[in-house]
Amino acid sequence: MNLKKLNRDEIKYIAMMTMLLNHIANIFLEPGTFVFTILVDIGYFTAPVMCWFLVEGYHYTRSKKRYAARLAVFALLSEIPFCLAFSEVYNGVESISFCGMNMMFTLLLCFGVLAVREHVQEEGLKLALYLFLFILSMISDWAILAPMFTLLFAGSRGDERRTKKSFLIGAGAFALMNFYPAASPGSLLYSLIYAFLSCCGILLAGIAVVCLYNGKRAEKGRTFFKWFFYLFYPVHLLILGIIRIFC
């Protein structure tokens, strides 16, 4: 039975919706509640999918320079909406302040990781540039993890078994980052459950890519989909940010 029915654009639509749920939870819901936790964890589907299709796009694009330029432009366009949406309340007042670089900037760094992997041959220099890009990602959304996913996916591209391992490694690393055992009774079990739930979105992303993705694009509306996916990120952040500030 062939389960690979989803094309690239359909998976991206799913990723956009899970990202929206994650952002709604982070902006409007109380941390620690059941609904908050579920929506945030569902949203972790998005970043690995973005990194996967970045690797795919890097391989297939007709112009890597134009691809990088698009990421740079939308990173700039997205920064104010990103800060508008995620700035913290200060003295009980909704505000806007710098709260890190947005995911488009992170993807631009991931693009840099792929460029280094392709063009830099000297191992010492390559390692130094990787380290620089990973450290630079620490001021942006999905720090460290997004470049790590990008390297894993680039190394496993075209090999389904290695791709499965890449998703499992990424999910395991993310679970460890969300494992906070403490001394109080029952906290170890809670931390284990919390860590497992946190990586479920990544595991679902792996299922979508490995088991359901048919390797194709939508047959119609390709130009629309291309720009819709770019515009959705800053536009939805802008709307959520305006609601946060004024409602």
Write the layout of secondary structure elements.
Layout: H1 8-28, H2 34-43, H3 46-60, H4 64-86, H5 103-119, H6 123-136, H7 145-156, H8 160-177, H9 187-198, H10 200-212, H11 222-246
Helix pairs in contact: 1-2, 1-3, 1-11, 3-5, 3-7, 3-10, 4-5, 4-11, 5-6, 5-7, 7-8, 8-9, 8-10
What does this structure look like?
- This protein is mainly α and 247 residues long.
- The protein has one domain.
- Helices cover 73% and strands 0% of the residues.
- It contains eleven helices and no strands.
- The model has no long low-confidence stretch (mean pLDDT 92).
How many discrete structural domains? 1
Shape: globular
Q: Which quaternary structure do these chains form?
A: single chain
| Structural class estimated from helices and strands | mainly alpha
Instruction: Indicate the low-confidence ranges by residue numbers.
Output: none
Topology, number of strands? 0
Described by strand count, sense and barrel closure, the largest sheet is: none
- CA radius of gyration: 18 Å
- How far the N terminus sits from the C terminus, by CA atoms, comes to 49 Å
Helix content range of the residues, please? over 70%
What portion of the residues fall into strands of 2 or more residues? under 5%
Number of helices: 11
- Whole-number mean pLDDT: 92
Instruction: Sketch the topology as an H/E string, one letter per element.
Output: HHHHHHHHHHH
